[in-house]
Amino acid sequence: MLRTALLTTLALTSCGFDSGSNVSSSSSSSSSDTGLSTSGIEPTTVSATLGTQSGTGTSTGTADTTGGSSSSETDPDTGTSETTGASLWGPFEDILPVDGVNDMFAADDDPTLSSDLLEIYFNSTRLGQEDIFVARRASLEDPFDAAEYVAELSSPFIDTVPELSPDGLVMTLSNNQPAGAGNFDVFVSTRDDLESLWSSPVPIEELNTIDGDGSLSMTEDGLSAVLCLNALARNDYQLFTTTRPALDEPWEVPTVIDALLSRGRDCSPWLSPDGSELWWGSNRPRPIEDTNVYRVAMVDGAPDGEIEEIVELSTDFTDDDPWLSPDGSVIVFSSDRDGNLDLYTARRELL
Predict the structure, then answer these.
(1) Where are the domains of the chain?
(2) For residue 117, which of 175, 58, 36 has the smallest C-alpha distance?
(3) Is 194 left (phi over 0), alpha (psi -120 to 50) or beta?
(4) 188-200 residue pLDDT tens
(5) CATH assignment of 6-347, given 2.120.10.10, 3.30.2010.10, 2.120.10.30, 3.40.50.720?
(6) Does residue 335 have a pLDDT over 50?
(7) Within 10 A of 200 (CB to CB), how many other CB atoms are there?
(8) Which of 144, 227, 213 is nearest to 174 (CA)?
């Protein structure tokens, strides 16, 4: 998470870099760790989620807001559209806790998964401060095994916002170790294959500033990315884009995505592997405690079309940190809708 000037004012939100909150271990016992009910997910069909009904976290809306649409009306103040007309996707349904992963005495946040949905990384306060954890399962029909502390990605400092590359071999994250450029900085780690340990994270120096830097989400080719920076003297975080000509070349200076600026905080980006969609969390124009998930189509690194709130995921609490499966049918995100910050999942079907 990002600190300094925001440490006090943002302390009521979730536990990630993108949420700007203080590190605290929530003691709410209202979250549920029940059994998994999951079947296989095919590339173009949906037959599963990652969670099990717990009596809470159910769908809060029915609008079809997550696909291409024939018409829309845009709120000039918030930049948000209420989409009408045909949609490629139906609404997300069966919003459930990610089973076997959440800890009722900790804040679990910032999920990122492998493309086959068999490995989930996230940050958690279950050891007292934010560290990186992973949970695995043998198949989509199985529950996740108990989450494990990832020692090679964690440090004595705050480690947060892990982002796994589509091929599963690159991990970006942020931490606030004093050797960095200042505040939170972006780090990168790699592994030779899916069975290998992660390398020791190193800073991506060209992206790091004296302000808060992090939540770097890359396209599949590793040449384009969106990240979250607090570099506009707005006392809040906004989304920036960056590119590089080759994997062995440095990233270009990040450029703010002007079309997505709001009076609130815009962070926790997820960029689709082909760069055609950007999903993120924003509190536009709501109080700081009320963050919701938004989406916009992207063309050549720029928004193309209207900003869409994913209303069926929205509550009056924090709903943030979206990650989508490669086929777009499953979303995993963080929410404190049940009084504790936990990981949730939902599914949708093609119309």
Answers:
(1) 6-347
(2) 36
(3) alpha
(4) 999 999 999 999 9
(5) 2.120.10.30
(6) yes
(7) 10
(8) 213
Tell me the pLDDT band of 217, cut-offs 50, 70 and 90.
very high
CA atoms of 332 and 110, how far apart (whole Å): 9
What single string gives the DSSP state of each residue in 191-248? Answer: -SSTTSPPPPPEE-GGG--SS-EEEEEE-TTSSEEEEEE--SSSSS-EEEEEE-SSTT
Residue 221: per-residue pLDDT: 97
Q: Minimal CA–CA distance to 268: which of 234, 301, 293?
A: 293
Cis bond before residue 285 (omega within 30° of 0): yes
Q: CB within 8 A of 94, min separation 6: which ones?
A: 49, 51, 53, 58, 59, 346, 347
Q: Mean pLDDT check: name the lowest of 52-56, 206-210, 242-246.
A: 52-56
Tokens of 254: 């990040």
Q: Which run of H or of E encompasses 7?
A: helix 6-9
339 neighbors 347 (Cβ within 8 angstroms): no
Cα 15–chain centre separation: 12
CA-based angle 230:188:246, to the nearest 5?
Answer: 95
pTM for this entry: 0.79
Tell me how far apart the alpha carbons of residues 133 and 154 are, in angstroms, rounded to a whole number: 9
Gap between the Cα atoms of 335 and 96, Å rounded:
11
**137-183 residue pLDDT tens:** 999 999 999 999 999 999 999 999 999 999 999 999 999 887 666 67
pLDDT at position 213 is: 74
